[in-house]
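Sample pair:
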Amino acid sequence: MPLSIALHAAVDPGRARSNNEDSAEIDPEVALAVLADGMGGYNAGEVASSMATGFIRTELGRWLREASSQASDAEVRRAMDICVDNANRAIFNAANSNPQYAGMGTTLVVAVFRDGRLLLGHVGDSRCYRLRGGRLQQITRDHSLLQEQIDAGLITPEQAAFSANKNLVTRAVGVEDTVLLETHQHEVQPGDLYLLCSDGLSDMVDDAGIAQLLLQCDSLESGTRALIAAANDAGGKDNISVILGRVAGGASAPARSWWPFRR
């Protein structure tokens, strides 16, 4: 029996901001999920994130429908690269032709689920987690100054939780005329639960708290509500975007330039 994926998305402004610069879109028919967290001046981050998710959902979704199951994983990854590059150029050109959008950009996570595989791409510090067998694992690695400091041994992950550099990303969509989408392929198993989120969740709720909430949720909709509520209860200092994807089917399963720009 082939694997199938159920998807649910939710976005919340949080408690500290009046505008919403996050965007999350899904296309269940082609098992596509796209999430973005915008940055920039007044309304510019909102424009960048909505441009990214809308463009990629439309263009990559159309390509996936036309390619169907005949496309190889390499061809899908190439299509992801092209769609993200086109979205990047559209955002970059808009930022350079409209003074009110100057400097806008966005993080990005894009996931394409195929039978037994997840093709995952990301830019910036929005994340994807996998819950499998009761264990939560972050399967993206932040493109951030903080992550570079951790990798270099300058600070510990525990110290990073209190760092003043949390909002400095080293890669973003739309800030330059080209962007590098980091892509990886992951094995998918029945019972897996995948979480795509902006840092409005991951900065407010630690991994242990996220895991506990996911283990308790009885539906994708209730899971997104619980995660957003937890982030708001912890202060809701940023917009919160969440996409959950649960894998069913198969055999039964056991339970450029690299300087930082401020977001």
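The longest helix spans residues 73-97.
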